[in-house]
Automatic annotation (TrEMBL), chain A:
Source lineage: Bacteria, Pseudomonadati, Pseudomonadota, Alphaproteobacteria, Rhodospirillales
GO terms classed as biological process: transmembrane transport
Location relative to the cell: Cell membrane
Transmembrane residue ranges: 9-30, 101-122, 134-158, 178-195, 233-259, 279-305
Pfam families: BPD_transp_1 (PF00528), BPD_transp_1_N (PF19300)
InterPro entries per UniProt: BPD_transp_1_N, MetI-like, MetI-like_sf
Domain ABC transmembrane type-1: 95-302
The protein's name: Glutathione ABC transporter permease
Similarity comment text for this entry: Belongs to the binding-protein-dependent transport system permease family.
From TrEMBL, chain B:
Protein's name according to its UniProt entry: ABC transporter permease
UniProt keywords, alphabetically: Cell membrane, Membrane, Peptide transport, Protein transport, Transmembrane, Transmembrane helix, Transport
Species in which this protein is naturally found: Thalassospira mesophila
Subcellular location as annotated: Cell membrane
Keyword tRNA processing on entry: no
Domain of life: Bacteria
GO BP: peptide transport; protein transport; transmembrane transport
Membership in a protein family: Belongs to the binding-protein-dependent transport system permease family.
Amino acid sequence: MLGYIFRRILLAIPTLLVMLTVVFILVRLVPGDPAVAMLGDRASEATLQALREQLGLNQPIAVQYFEFLGNMITGDFGKSMVTGRTVLSEVGAVLPYTLELTFSAMVLGTLFGLPLGVIAAVRRNKWPDYASRIVSLIGLSFPGFVSAILLLLCFAVWQHWLPVMSRASSDPVTHIRNLILPALNLGLIMMAYIARVTRSSMLDVLGEDYIRTAQAKGVKARTLVMRHALGNALIPIVTVVGLYFGTLIGNSVLAEIVFTRPGLGKLILGALQSRDYTMLQGLMVVFAIFVILVNTATDVIYGLVDPRVSYKK
Amino acid sequence: MTSAAISNSSETVKSSPVLTALRRNRMAWLGGGTLFIIVLVAIFAPLIAPHDPLEQNILARLSPPSADFWLGTDSYGRDVLSRLLYGARISLSIGFLSVLTAMVVGSSLGMLAGYIGGVFEQIVMGLVDVLLSFPTLLLGLMIAAMLGSSFENLIIAIAITEIAPFARVARAPTIAVKRRDFVDAGRSLGLSPLRILGVHILPNILSDVVVVGSLWMASAIRTEASLAFIGLGVQPPTATWGGMIREGFDNILTAWWLVVFPSVAILITVLALNILGDALRDAIDPKTRSGQ
């Protein structure tokens, strides 16, 4: 078992290398001279040269690449060109907000999505199934920012139930009130997703022979669905929920912009607007590491919950 | 055209039951019909739009929906309805062209990986896994930010985010078909690998690729709108749905129509594509087809 976990973690290293390479190439795709692109046409030659040196742009590309890899692996993600603070400290300052948001969204999504999917599968082709499918289809069709804006309009602009802006606050009540709309927004999209996966996973399991056997033996419907079927159906759901985490972070970028909430999304937007390319490069790497960590963790959990996954492979 | 190409090829079996299942599926009609109307609107936008989408009318700025301006005007006094109609062109063409690019590049890569195998396959599929594990929106955001946001760059950025699923979908059936007798026969007759791939393998994977395409076009349109909302879309004054929401967002407290109508337009388009994609998938999957 430990060996499996170890091998899975080893497997993340080439993925990380590829991602770092992709980021390296992307930053060098900036058309023209990156220094000019970052500082604008009016910057003096001395400032331009200083920036080129800071970015290592005056060195051969291979040297640049290995220097970049070395920096990233030793945890040096660079400095913001605007604030002068390191990428890590900028990220550290807002990460709790993003984590809090994505975590509440995950809880909401699972809390509502799981029952919705189970009911749809058990009442297949009856009205609860159709209702659940329509709800999840609509939820999956919403771009994250569109649902955010409509929620904002309904609950903050037209009905003044919740705040329009979710700025940071030290008062716990305000803090939670600020969290409600963004979390609901991401949670509803996630609910749609989980409901859909749960439905199809449950349908697969409910068609199995052992379910029919249990039914024939007179197992109560409730036990049959909750214990016999859902237990097994949960395995693919866990994976899907884990993999969805990346999308959730992507959507949280949009939600943070709409709800004026601090977080990684605001950080990205700021870096984009001020053409802070070192910050952007650092953020890409942080995101990449994040996604790889979650994917690896998901695989390890998958191995733990599913006895059929081979540890030898 | 697709169905004709499929039914002409000797080794395919799926074509006619798929079409029958589709024709009987009410959701397919709903999704397809809605999409057809949206495409018509985009094509004939210059004929049906009541105003010039770029014409500013400062006296009528921020006016709510009225008889003159059915969906109101924005902060420059431009007609929201006309901008919405023209915006359909950008959304649909970026969505379609990026998926088409991803489809061609991705399925070629997948077919080659499946056909050649070995180290090449491992490298390609390794890259595909990396691409797949990265969230579409973030990847698109990074590429668009680096390339700069023009119409062409957006197509490239969104296409790159969607190459991976096509490569996956194309590879598996290629491996399966590769082992069939008729491919062996072709090879021993001295047919070039390109011909074997194009004539004998492509028709077999086309239906799967098209289904994935319709599902991912919904995602492409969502990504385009999201990028435009962040400010990485086709630049103003060109009307795009995401860009309209971005501009309207500043006036959300007073002028709801600026964000609500483009939102509804995006939602209806994506919903129609998703419904159509689901219907296509059901029609192609023999399990669900018989259950209909």
